[in-house]
Amino acid sequence: MTPARLCAAVGVVALATLAAACAKPAPAPEPEAAVTTEVQAWRDKHEADYRRDWVTIAGLHFLHEGAQTAGSAKTNDVVLPASAPATVGRFVVEGASVRFEPAAGAPVDLKGTRVTAPVVLKDDSGSGADELVTGTVKIAVHVSGNRRSLRVWDPEGPLARGFKGFTWFPIQLDQRVTGRFIPDASPRTLQVTNTFGDLDTFTTQGVVEFTLNGQTLRLRPFTTRPKRFYFVFKDASSGTETYAAARFLYADLKDDGTAVLDFNQAYNPPCAFNPYTTCPIPLPENRLPVKVLAGERAYPDQVELPAS
After folding, report:
1. pLDDT tens digits for 3-39?
2. pLDDT tens digits along 92-110
3. How are beta strands 66-71 and 89-94 bridged, if at all?
4. Strands (E), 34-166
5. What pLDDT sits at residue 127?
6. Which of 139, 230, 238, 262 could form a disulfide with 234 if both were Cys (CB 3.0 to 4.6 A apart)?
7. DSSP secondary structure, 32-61, as one string
8. Are residues 206 and 143 in the same domain?
9. Which domain holds residue 126?
10. What number of other Cβ atoms are within 10 A of residue 239's Cβ?
């Protein structure tokens, strides 16, 4: 071989070696045991959180402008669970503000301190609502659209005692997919109808495209904080194997523009089992044409919303 040909051959080999070194290897499939452990840990935490925060909700009372009395006595405008005092005081609405005025001697605490004077309550539209506590009953101001209401918790109430639990599809590795985030030109806000007919505001920044059950699909998430996606979706199983209105799913946006959508972690909103919760309705583009038989199954009872 001539020196020129030898140099050319060496160059070809070097380029091939360099190309092989630079090429990204295909990601190794996740071990099934690791995925199962992760998903089961998530489900265990989810069930504990939901039993504490959502199963125990015992009432949702929409407020009107002006004053309304509250207590367990039937003569009150807002009737609280029987374990609450007959009268706790009154709630006064002035525009977007809700003020609690305690009745004399009422055993109502806020942040561990007895409430003895009127106090304006922080609602749940921000980082956290003020919670009034009397015995085992808890009360907070909930915002639904432009309306204010009192959300009431009672861990000893009939809804909490009658809760029928959570049922899940088996954990399946093929229901955990990696999607590609396709950003919009700029972030925007959407007015989304909830189960009480009010409009809640969410921020969205784009869609996530992924392949599931052999089909290329897209879902539009809401952004709850930077790089945190909140999906509200329906699929072809909604109303039969899964909850009719919607299911929820969270995912994180990675630095490479991808997000792992693990439908084993798709779960029912609280309105699936509790009529006193307000849940967003899926956007039309978030109604998938395939069955997603993963995550949480339908709750065994049909929950009817109370008159609002």
Report:
1. 444 444 434 334 344 344 444 454 556 778 899 999 9
2. 999 999 999 999 999 999 9
3. antiparallel
4. 57-62, 66-71, 78-79, 89-94, 97-102, 109-110, 113-114, 119-120, 131-134, 137-144, 147-153
5. 81
6. 238
7. HHHHHHHHHHHHHHHHHHHHHHTTTEEEEE
8. no
9. 57-161
10. 11
